[in-house]
Amino acid sequence: MHGLKNHYINRIVKLSVIASAISLLLLNCSCSIDSVTDTGNSQSSETVTRITEKSSDKTIKLTMFSSTLGIEKSQDNEIRKLIAEKTGVEVVEVWLVGQTSQNVFDGLLQSKNLTDYVYFNERLDEFYEADLLVAWDPYIEQYPRIKSLYTDEEWDMLRQSDGHIYSVNIPGAPVWYGEDADETGLCNTAGFAVTTCCKDPDVAFKFINDILSDEVMELRFWGIEGVDYLVNVDGSYYRTKEMTDNLSEKEYVRDHVCQYQMMPQSRDFCV
């Protein structure tokens, strides 16, 4: 009996430690915090907190956590700055570092301490059940590029039990579907979402719509003309070997590339 009791006590302590570690990782990305620090440190997750007020350069900074591995961006990442100039918003991305995804999910569910956006490759439905996700429905109708992500029938496949939509799937992203995977590949147990910790969902959804424009999609997945790609006489894009090699250099990606790869991508844009 004492052994069983100790087991539960140890588990509670462990979850508390995990929650505290994640809170430190995100510097308490709670609904009440109003600052952002992007260290650009490749050895640990970017230090971030929430902001929904405009910074001195008039850019709104939001945060995003992805339960996948990724290369952190430097504070002065060129493409991210260009996208911010066009949209008025800059997103600091935090990746899975130094924890298992299961421990992170447990800690986040306990602390309810989330970034503005999240991408989870599983267990997203648990965050819906905890009332931690913002419904997409009004924004789907408000923003045409968001609406064009799916057909009406496909949007319906993403509805949760209350009839609303709380997330979208990301093409090519790692997803664990479980035993009841739909043959279409769409599911509401994994994907990209806006959280209830976001102070201004209107800004968050407008940014999603903005980065689906052809102009921003080109920046995200092609980069800067003459630097990252060239244009043929027929209008098609191509890269030289040097340009292609640059994309495999971690430092170059950290300082220059910003695909926001775990955020929605236009289905009509060809890379």
Blueprint (SSEs and pairs):
Layout: H1 2-25, E1 60-66, H2 78-87, E2 89-95, H3 101-111, E3 117-120, H4 124-129, H5 137-142, H6 144-147, H7 152-157, E4 191-194, H8 201-210, H9 214-221, E5 230-231, E6 237-238, H10 241-246, H11 250-256
Parallel strand pairs: 1-2, 1-3
Antiparallel strand pairs: 3-4, 5-6
Helix pairs in contact: 1-3
Strand arrangement, largest sheet?
2-1-3-4
Order of helices and strands: HEHEHEHHHHEHHEEHH
* Residues in helices, as a percent range: 25-40%
| Sheet/helix structural class | alpha/beta
Number of helices: 11
Got a strand count? 6
User: How much β-strand is present in the residues?
Assistant: 5-15%
Low-confidence stretches: 4-22, 27-56
Compute the CA-based radius of gyration. 19 Å
Terminus-to-terminus distance? 60 Å
The biggest beta sheet, please? Answer: 4 strands, mixed
What is the mean predicted local confidence, pLDDT? 82
- What's the overall geometry? globular
